Request: fold
Amino acid sequence: MSRVVSGRFWSRAACLIIVATLAGCGSRDATAPSSPSIVGRWEGSAKFGTVHFEAAFTQTGESVGGTGQVRSLLGSTSFTVSGTVRGQEVELTLLSAEYGATTFAGRFTGANTISGRLGNPDEELTIERDD
Reply:
């Protein structure tokens, strides 16, 4: 009897592992394409969620433009975007009337995710497509 129960246990455990593995494979952002597009709405947060970033990007060839907003406990500011996407590498300049210019340098880690770093303040920031 214990051998039958034990056999059922391992069969069920193996099925659960297979289902969990397949569920992870269904992610819409499993790998970054070699030439991803940044076009669309993106958002993310930094500093344990106290800084919220959102932007809408356009792209023509490698050139990126757009607008966005950063909100924090201290206030918010709008900015314009200029920069480039070369392969999976993203280099942006964010220009705000209130705070001047800062940079964002990142890399597509999936088709819908860019991980990188703001220049000022020096903060890690991951943004995700919000279309």
In short: The chain has two domains: 1-30, 40-129. Strands lie at 40-46, 51-60, 63-72, 75-86, 89-96, 100-110, 113-118, 123-129.
